[in-house]
Amino acid sequence: MIPELGNFALVLALGLALIQSGFCLAGAAMRRTDWMAVGTPATWGMLGCAALAYACLTYSFVANDFSVLFVAEHSNSGLPLFYRVAGVWGGHEGSLLLWILLLAGWTLAVAAWSGSLPLVYRARVLGILGLVSVGFLAFTILTSNPFDRLFPVPADGQDLNPLLQDPGMVIHPPMLYVGYVGMSVVFALSIAALMGGRLDAAWARWSRPWTLVAWLFLALGIALGSWWAYKELGWGGWWFWDPVENASLMPWLVATALIHSLAATEKRGTFKAWTVLLAIAGFSLSLLGTFLVRSGALTSVHAFANDPARGIFLLGFMVIVVGGSLALYTMRARQIRSDVTFALFSRETLLLANNVLLMVACAAVLIGTLYPLLLDAFGMGRISIGPPYFNAIIAPLALFLAALMGLGPLTAWRQADAVALARRLRFAALGSVALAAVVVVLLSDTARLIVIVTVALALWIVLTSVMGIHGRVRLRQGSLLQGLRGIPRGFYGMHLAHVGFAVSMLGIGVVTTHEVETFHRLSPGETVETAGYTWRFDGVSNVQGPNYSAVEGRVVVSRGDSPVTVLRPQKRHYPVRDEIMTQAGINAGFGRDLFATLGERVGEDGAWVVRLHYKPLVRWIWLGAIFMAVGGALAASDRRYRLELRQRAHADIPSNAAAAGGGA
Amino acid sequence: MSRLMQPVLMLLLLLMALSPAWAQEPGLGADTPTPQTADVPAFEDQDRQQRYVGLLRKLRCLVCQNESLAESNAGLARDLRRIVHTRLEAGQSDEQILAFMTERYGDFVLYRPPVRPSTYALWFGPAVLLLIGIGVIARMVFRRQAPGDRPPLSEADRRRAAALLDENEGRSDS
Amino acid sequence: MKFAIPLAVFIAVAALLYMGLGGDKSRVPSPFIGKPLPTVDLPELHDPERRFTNARVSERDEVVLLNVWASWCPPCREEHPVFVEIADDVPLYGINYKDARDDAIDWLERLGDPYVAIGYDEDGLAGIELGLYGVPETYVVDGEGKIRYKHVGAVTRTVYEQTLLPIIEQVRREATPQ
Question: What mean pLDDT is reported for chain B?
Fold first, then answer.
């Protein structure tokens, strides 16, 4: 009963999405206010239906209804409740349902907070979002229905993939999806603007918070994925340049470029056509990510499904959405071009440089991900592209970006005084390098140039951020506290995000150059000295989990005479899927992680191969991402955006009147 | 200072910002001194040990294709590790050992795609795109308005404009 | 018309993705296609005194199938009946990979022995020389000892008829003097 209800809700949602998009777009074309007004109620209805469908699937999981095929494939009566709820998005069909739910949510948010937008424009935005929903709903209902039944009903399910049975894995997909789906908002805003043939600075001001929120969720989602992989896969790696990881990184890189480009469009009315193109690219890459995970075009440890039939559908959907948008862009971009000039040394130029670096990085990731496909398609053999390629290309780009990050916020718009700026930054630049050199030489036994450069750049970003805030506070009229309060949130957000990048960069730089990883054959009671710690292996014991049995090792770590921690790495066996999973024993620390995993049993005396890692500053990688996310949230909640809405609602702004009157 | 100093100083500033390019060392891979895998005896020579792990990291396991030879527990991976070990003991160079692998398994077994005509686009593509990007910036920046496009501002307008611009810069810096 | 560039790039990428759909992406193509069979020198499975070498495989100067298998491998079990059926149509040579000699011989006694000769690769090194990365694998080797095709995975009736047989017949046509 419940699954049928869920199925019905999905179909109803599809109908509502068709109504929403149909009436909104047709109404906009024909300037019919009554049709365009269908948008908001239709959105509410769609969200209700999507939520109902999602609830039905969750219920099926929780109630262990194995007559539903999806539940039978991804759950088990022994699975803890927490994972049964989360298992909804542990497979292809359920994850699509999550996507649909989130898209309905975002659409409603746009509908609820767009009261001040011109009516025609608003209707177009909702219409486009509705069309995207139509696509996903159709795809789900026709090819990947989570409510398909299974007869005869099995006694029990095939269990959730053991790799997914981890708290990190539970929260990573929803976060990432919020980000992916969120990119559809700025996409819809851009397409609607192209359709209307007009784009102004107010449009940029309106788009920016939406983009910031999508961006910050993508950052969190990616960081969570990295953290989960580190915990769960047992090799101590935190990024593998796997095709699906790349598919989540690319929209984030584009979103970062987009935020910066929007700043220029908002402040100076420049880069309009480019900003629109970025918005299209960002969402297109989100769709590409969806395609790659499910179509079997590329092998990946993350792939949900390897179904070429579904791949064709998704590819067709992409061709319509992305191809259509780019065709519209080709036709209309000339109309929205900006004609603003700026000097060689100005913030505009630096933002352009920022965009070029980010887009080249994104292009490199795309090329590296798709290149094997290219060679294979032309029969030129098969190659594999791994970290050596990506690291070699991305690392220098990231360092260039870091250098610009310190410079940009302090550079004036339109025309900046390079001499004055150089004088102002002299101390920060030299100080960063000097301090970095000192720190690195003192703290590590090998002073590598790349480490000094990385530390110097991180310091550079922090110093210039402090200088930026100081520069603002200096202009104040009241006390220091009043001065600090007077600075808009957006400004803090920007600097916090930049500092977050510096923190992540520092973490990455230090852990890749200074981590220590050793493997040893250890008998119970044997100790090993490595990375300045003493590690004693105390043998293994058997433990039982809710749906697994495990061999658990005990590794006692001490430094000199004082004990530091006891690590308990496990090798788990999940009987339902007959899969073995390595669980690392990790002692997390702000300055370092201690990490141990069990390899294999060796010989008869209880000896095991044990891998021991010392990872300095690895947590900073994810800490930096948190800073970036908080910075993004601060920036998105800036009063200017909320004030602006209220002002526009009252003022008689040309775009508003013209749109309502039939010009746009 | 003369107007010539501005671009010169800006160039110096950019050079400072570009210095990471000179600091780049190929392959920011993990530096892992002295690991041993238990299924082969440790090397006596530290240098060989380093090379051993380095080589394992460069080779993809063909059975568990998302793991390197250093991590994979597959039977084939163990056999290949023993071969790498044996060949290192016999004094072969890294290139010879990698060539052994690619002769039998093709380029797919390498994590670092070889630089050859079929992969020029891969390796040089990003650099080319970067140059194109710089070219686009240059074109945008040096595009000058044709004189007489816009009517000159009156003095009153000019003062008003300057006042507005100053106010704007003080207010919104993010 | 620089605004059309993004659209053009997208069309190219979409075409590439379309071409990439379908096909087994974990398949690693052999670098030996069109090249001579790598050196094989193993003891024979049934008679350890005799050697199983390249010369043995090419002794008949005609196209043959070289099948790498093991008794512990389920897909090998699945494909074996097909080999028993086609043993009269095309000569079959085998390599027993990382197996126990007795287990392999028992297996053949139970399921039939379609092979002209079988090499015994106890430590798997011969397999590595061939670029093997899983069992079963089957090679089409022509009369001159060149590898013409490599199939990874079980040889089902369909695979034999639709993939291997056309290649075998083509090689035979080439060998026949006009």
Answer: 70
Which pTM does this prediction carry?
A: 0.87
**Residues of A in Cβ contact (< 8 Å) with C16:** 370, 373-374, 377
Q: How many residue contacts between A and C have a Cβ separation below 8 Å?
A: 66
Q: Contact at 8 Å (CB) between A363 and B129?
A: yes
Residues of B in contact with C133 (CB under 8 A): 62-63, 76, 105
pLDDT digits (tens, 9 = 90+) for A355-373: 999 999 999 999 999 998 8
- The vertex-A640 CA angle with A639 and A643, nearest 5°, equals 80
Measured between beta carbons, the chain C residues lying within 8 angstroms of B103 are 31
What is the count of residue pairs from A and B with beta carbons less than 8 Å apart? 209
Asked if C6's CB is within 8 angstroms of A280's CB, the reply is yes
Share of chain B above pLDDT 70, in %: 60
Q: Which residues contact A283 (CB under 8 A, 6 or more apart)?
A: A183, A184, A186, A187, A251, A321, A322
Beta bridge partner(s), residue A551: A542, A571
pLDDT of C23 > 80? The answer is no
Assess whether the previous peptide bond of B7 is cis (omega < 30° from 0): no
Which of A280, A334, A373 is facing C20, going by the closest CB pair? Answer: A373
Give C119's pLDDT tier (boundaries 50, 70, 90).
very high
| DSSP H or E stretch at residue C53 | strand C51-53
- CA distance between the termini of chain A: 49
pLDDT digits (tens, 9 = 90+) for A529-577: 888 899 999 989 999 988 889 999 999 999 988 889 999 999 888 888 7
For residue B65, give the chain C residue with the closest CA.
C26
> Cβ distance A233 to A597 under 8 Å?
no
Burial state string for A552-581 with b = 16 or more CB within 10 A and e = fewer than 16: bbbbebeeeeeebbebbbbbbbbebbeeeb
Whether B130 and A383 lie within 8 Å, measured CB to CB? no
Structure tokens given for A66: 């194995």
- Quick check: B103 and C31 CB within 8 A? yes
Q: Per the CB < 8 Å rule, is B133 touching A359?
A: yes
Q: How many helices (H) and strands (E) does chain A have?
A: 22, 10
User: Least CB-CB distance to A386: which of B32, B112, B129?
Assistant: B112
> Which of B111, B170, B174 lies nearest to residue A491, judging by beta carbons?
B174
pLDDT less than 50: residues of chain A = 650-664
